[in-house]
Amino acid sequence: MVWGAIGWDWKSPLILLTKEKGMRGICSKAYLNQVLELVVFPWLDTLSEQQKKEFYFMEDGAKIHKGFAKLPRQLKGLRGFKWPPSSPDLNPIEKVWRWMKNEIIKLETVPLSIEDMWEVVQELWSEVDPKEWRYLTERLTCKLEDVIESKGMAIIH
Question: In this structure, what is the dihedral angle of CA atoms 146, 151, 156, 157, given to the nearest 10 degrees?
């Protein structure tokens, strides 16, 4: 599983999550240890109090965002919101993932190993300029209003 984040003129490093010792797969413990503790919390600590008040951390409904990850997020004051069940269109990073997937489909040769795919994904991530994706954040308030109006169902525009 790959994790990355974008924000206003900012993007995170790209993280290839690995299975934690004793676990069967990628779980909330891996997310806590490899993403929140190593990337998100240290970055959050660099923000001013005013910036923290204006900051919302968007996660989708994936199970790894619950469990071990939930309490440390709350203790750090990381604010988010509950997602409607059918609205991945609210999360700006989803548009970036879609672009990356489309670029992978265009490749002449398909990566056949995790290492080769990771190399391709890292190269594409290096091309992501958060300033080019800023419009997604700017339109978020309008999108939220549209989703509320549609009672949580997916919106199209």
Answer: 0
